Automatic annotation (TrEMBL):
Record SMART domains: GAL4
Chief place where the protein resides: nucleus
SUPFAM superfamilies for the chain: Zn2/Cys6 DNA-binding domain (SSF57701)
Name this protein carries in UniProt: Fungal-specific transcription factor domain-containing protein
Length: 463
């Protein structure tokens, strides 16, 4: 989607979508309080009134050295934790406002549980050992604050460059542990698609490096970093799944990571803010996604793999206790089955007969309807909305012209997803679906969403 089309979409949908133009927060950012406007500095949009400007002579957007980093958290006003102080990290400059914005706002887009979010205030225990992570958090905050709008992302891109430079130095000097470096590496890679001007960058270089680093960490099994390693492995598994359709077959791993395979089976009972208790399911979906990409690119089918994946998905049982988490897990499980039936026909059959093919088509459509029903059973105000774009794309691609009601439901939910996380990739998902529906409605040809994506030379990292 071009910048022009992005703006056009935002203007036409302003009545139902939290866009840069329509958002009250965005308007505060542009106008600011009177004193900020007089001093021609950016106002702190995280509060209706810029608190710093209440103290005459203060600077609205302070830049402090780490040793001076201290800021107030309003909702902890009566708590001894109200003032958060950190020990010196290095002789680097820290924008306290951007760090606070990460803790209170940006971090929420990475978690499906706002009450149990290690990306928020708990992440402070990791920043002291990783200057690169400090730079990244500020970069991501500046980007989300600007709705990932390229003309307003100069601060974000500058901070991102500093994060990359600091990460290289940490790896060379070993000044930070491998677990700390892996966290920054994953965050930089995962956010590549957030910063891109088009649906082409999914963090390929970082994704190719991640398996080797994950394997080293899992083999070391440092008990001091056990909590951090669980956090990073969940990020990696989810990101790998979301990128599985983007990665060219030539870049696919030639060997399975045995350490990771063992880890995800053991770790599903431990909650993760992205994969909840289903890290093993997301790991399986990553393998299925890469296999589907091979099939679309003309690769040979592996019947044993297809049957194994189908059996695993059919037999998979969620251990979630929260109903919304269970619905989301079930939606992803059926998403995996839908991929197999759409791209492989009936698993285990080379050339399905007309009857079998018809049954597969019917089953794929029913799976898509089930996914939509499961997704819409989750409240639109829930943090579980954050990662719904993946199953919405696969299910939405199956909706025919007779499913106009479901198409509208998908449109509305994707707009709600965008309003929650501000990621432009969500709008690209909707654009891809609209184009796919238009092609299918002509009746001239039937093309899958993945084939259409590749024909447009997109590498859309969904979610």
């Amino acid at each position: 989607m071009t910048t022009a089309s992005h703006q056009s979409f935002s203007n036409t949908e302003s009545h139902s979508l939290d866009t840069p133009e329509s958002s009250p927060t965005r308007q505060r950012s542009r106008s600011g309080c009177r004193e900020c406007r007089q001093r021609k500095v950016k106002c702190d949009e995280t509060f209706p009134v810029c608190q710093r400007c209440q103290r005459r002579g203060s600077v609205c957007q302070p830049t402090l050295r780490t040793s001076q980093w201290q800021f107030e958290v309003p909702w902890l006003a009566n708590s001894p934790l109200n003032t958060i102080s950190l020990p010196p990290i290095a002789d680097i400059k820290v924008d306290a406002r951007l760090m606070r914005y990460w803790l209170e706002a940006t971090s929420q887009m990475l978690s499906v549980d706002s009450s149990n979010n290690p990306f928020s205030f708990p992440i402070l225990k990791y920043v002291a050992g990783s200057p690169s992570l400090v730079h990244f958090l500020q970069s991501a905050s500046a980007a989300q604050e600007a709705y990932f709008y390229q003309p307003e992302m100069s601060v974000s891109l500058a901070k991102r460059g500093q994060a990359l430079s600091a990460l290289r130095q940490e790896l060379q000097t070993r000044s930070s542990s491998l677990s700390h470096c892996f966290l920054t590496l994953l965050m930089l890679g995962m956010s590549s698609s957030w910063m891109a001007m088009g649906p082409t960058d999914y963090g390929r270089e970082h994704l190719l490096a991640a398996p080797a680093v994950a394997d080293m960490i899992l083999k070391e099994k440092d008990s001091n970093n056990e909590e951090l390693d669980h956090l990073t492995m969940g990020i990696y598994v989810y990101w790998d799944m979301a990128c599985s359709f983007c990665l060219d077959p030539v870049d696919h791993p030639t060997e399975r990571n045995g350490s990771l395979e063992t880890y995800v089976k053991e770790a599903r009972h431990k909650f993760h803010p992205i994969t909840t208790h289903s890290i093993d399911l997301y790991h399986l979906l990553g393998q299925v996604g890469r296999y589907c990409r091979v099939i679309v690119d003309g690769g040979r089918r592996d019947l044993l793999f297809e049957v194994s994946c189908e059996t695993s998905l059919i037999e998979y049982e969620s251990i979630e206790t929260d109903m919304m988490a269970k619905s989301l897990t079930e939606a992803f499980r059926k998403h995996g089955l839908l991929l197999l039936y759409r791209f492989c026909g009936r698993p285990g059959a080379f050339q399905p007969s007309g009857t079998i093919l018809s049954e597969a088509e019917h089953y794929a459509h029913q799976l898509a309807l089930d996914i939509i029903e499961l997704i819409l059973s989750i409240r639109s105000c829930s943090p579980y909305v954050n990662i719904q774009a993946v199953p919405l794309l696969s299910a939405g691609s199956e909706m025919t012209s007779l499913d106009s009601f479901q198409r509208n439901q998908i449109r509305q939910r994707l707009k709600e997803v965008y309003s929650t996380n501000r990621l432009v990739s969500t709008l690209w998902v909707l654009e891809l679906l609209e184009e796919l529906w238009a092609v299918h409605d002509t009746g001239m040809t039937h093309i899958t969403w993945l084939e259409l994506m590749l024909s447009k030379n997109w590498r859309l990292r969904v979610g």
